[in-house]
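Researcher: Final request for today, and then I'll write up notes for the group meeting. The sequence and the SMILES for flavin-adenine dinucleotide follow.
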Amino acid sequence: LAVIVERVRDLPGLEYDFVIIGGGTAGNVIANRLTENAKHTVLVLEAGVSNADVLNSMVPFFCPRLTPNTAFDWNYTTTPQDNLNGRVLAYPRGHILGGSSSINFMAYTRGSSDDYDRYARLTRDAGWSWDRLQPYFRKNERFTPPADDHNTTGQFNPAFHSFRGINSVSLAGFPQPIDGRVIQTTTELPGEFPFNMDTNSGNQLGIGWTQSTIGGGVRSSSATSYLGPQFVKRRNLHVLLHAQVARLIHTGSSRGNPAFREVEFTDGVGGPRRRARARKEVILSAGSIGTPHILLNSGIGDATDLTRVGIRPLVHLPSVGRNLSDHPFVVNQWLVNSVDTFETINRNATVAAADLQLWTQEKMGPLVDGAFNHNGWIRVPRNTTIFNKFPDPSAGPHTAHFEFVISNGLSHVPLPTNIGNNSFFVVSTAVLTPVSRGSITINSSDPFAPPLINPNFLSSEPDISIMREAIRSARHEELNEFIRENASSFFHPVGTAGMSPRGARYGVVDPDLRVKGVDGLRIVDASVLPIVPAGHTQAATYVFAERAADLIKKSW
Ligand SMILES: Cc1cc2nc3c(=O)[nH]c(=O)nc-3n(C[C@H](O)[C@H](O)[C@H](O)COP(=O)(O)OP(=O)(O)OC[C@H]3O[C@@H](n4cnc5c(N)ncnc54)[C@H](O)[C@@H]3O)c2cc1C
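Model: Predicted protein-flavin-adenine dinucleotide complex:
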């Protein structure tokens, strides 16, 4: 019996110890770790398609081709953004096994130690602190040589990395002509842009070499790693694709709380609805958009809001879908006279075909890397007046307020039509410590109608001030209007099913990730992070999932 199947008729049954909703970044970690114990049976319900043989998901340089508006994306859009001149933004999420780890830009960035220590403080659970999570970083990460096997001495610090985990991470495997100039800047302007040999050490500040979830020149996702060939042959693990979950079913009560141990889903795209049952727990891992959407569809959320759309409230949990935080992002580009930039590959079919042949035959050449070889993690200067008006929103002194993503050209295809034959140098900027909070809500009782996604970007003054500072340090003019006209998402939403201390009157899950006031249901994905870390969010998601797997195993 194949373990990854497309129809219910190919499953041995519909009752398992654990039913995991979403075969994404976190969901596949849980599936892997729980089935290490041969006695635990696990079913993963994934709405999206198979990742097998999806070339754009395998070839790192093709990552921008996976979103938006493809079969691998949920193709969500935001509500019109009041503070972005009313613009509606694409809001991609992976609709494919591996979830967003199969379509993301692969940057492996942990954030700062301060971020995790703040999670521990906010949840009153020291288990979420930087030090206590180190074993879980190590279980996740497998640091591997870059595709070109170059000498990486001085480009990362091995002391902070694991070479034995499951998910491959590597440095860039193809040199870009700008690499030397970026490093030269760190020696010429060490005050503003100091070099940091390893920005994943917990002290992230400075400019460093990008580490990415790539192994041997190929993307490493939760599907290729945690559901790799050595794991999917486990007889106690089943994965059902094209299974879109509509809602959780109330199955009586246990331990004094309503229990939700059944899941209603589609058997095939647009197919009939079926139900799966968990003897032990349902694990909701549908991501920062999918998870609150499914909770609301199931009657778990703000009772007044649910009643208004015709859904009977079963558990009044007003924080569901609130508290969305995401990084606003702006692409800043400069004309260059070089033609050895990304535009050449994206513009010239002959060059692209030769590069693809090199990748296919040898896993070498420019396609082995994603869209950047360097990132910078920077605090606004101490002498700015920004923090006279409002408190410093960062998690602590080792935490950046903004990020530089440094690219040898524009990575998105198709290229904008108004750039002619020009070539570019790109420093994108992101606010890492946003104060703005958005929401996921619904305006329909149809579980398959898309939710309303409002990241509410730049609705708080500190966010636009920090973005201004970020672009100023990358040298740009006419800043506010430029920002409102160009900012979009960095695709890092979290917090929509946030974790809070046990007994708190706000939040959606306890520090052991059980849904408050509910039995038989936990949430394990990026939605539980109460605040977005000062880093891209996959590393934190993987590490939270690794610890969550241990918490679940311990309780059974
Ligand atoms: C375009 C893009 C680029 C990004 N770039 C980076 C980057 O470079 N570095 C980085 O660290 N982070 C990046 N991120 C963010 C990072 O990928 C996410 O934070 C992380 O993968 C989230 O993991 P998750 O487990 O919470 O959700 P996901 O990985 O999205 O998993 C959720 C899964 O649940 C499934 N699902 C949802 N609803 C249902 C339903 N109703 N029924 C059944 N299944 C359902 C989805 O199909 C999906 O497979 C990027 C994200 C995007 C979208």
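Model: The radius of gyration is 22 Å. The chain has 14 helices and 28 strands.
Researcher: Thanks, that's everything.
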